[in-house]
Amino acid sequence: MEYIKNLFKKHIFKYWFFLLFGIIVDYCIYTILYYKFHLHIIPSNYISFSIGTFVNVVLIRNFVFKRFKFWLLKDFLLSLLTNGFVFFIWIIFLSYFINNFYINHYIWKTIVITCTFFINYFTRKYLFTHKIIW
Q1: CA distances for 89 relative to 52, 93, 113, angstroms
Q2: CA distance 8 to 10
Q3: CA distance linking residue 12 with residue 29, whole number of Å
């Protein structure tokens, strides 16, 4: 039991725990927008991704990287900037594979979210542990 507590104390494991929560929020919002409101896949992804990113920023600021340098809004915008670029590239792949190969959009959404938030971890770790003037 002590081993699990020590494991959870490390940033990467806490980060992935809260990442999972953010992904669940993202999926729930995406599902509601896509199936209930019949919003197209791309706008549904953008909206759910933005909300999921905000939830992750708030949770990660409070539980993982507690010594933050930026205001919440700036942190959120930096996260959208870093993740947004990767997300944009993946969304192009998402559109291509769904339209041409009929691959399930939930599978591709999982790949997109995992990659963007993984990159976000290393970006945040760098931003919070190195002195950068903004």
Answers
A1: 18, 7, 12
A2: 5
A3: 25
CA 96, 97, 100, 103 torsion-angle sign: negative
36: pLDDT strictly greater than 90: yes
First and final CA of the chain: distance in angstroms?
42
Token representation of residue 78:
């930096």
Q: Two tokens at 51?
A: 């909300």
Q: Is the pTM of this model over 0.85?
A: no
Ordered DSSP codes for 95-110: HHHHHHH---HHHHHH
Mind listing the pLDDT tens digit for each residue in 72-116? Answer: 777 777 777 777 777 777 777 777 777 777 778 788 778 777 777
Distance CA 49, CA 30 (A): 8
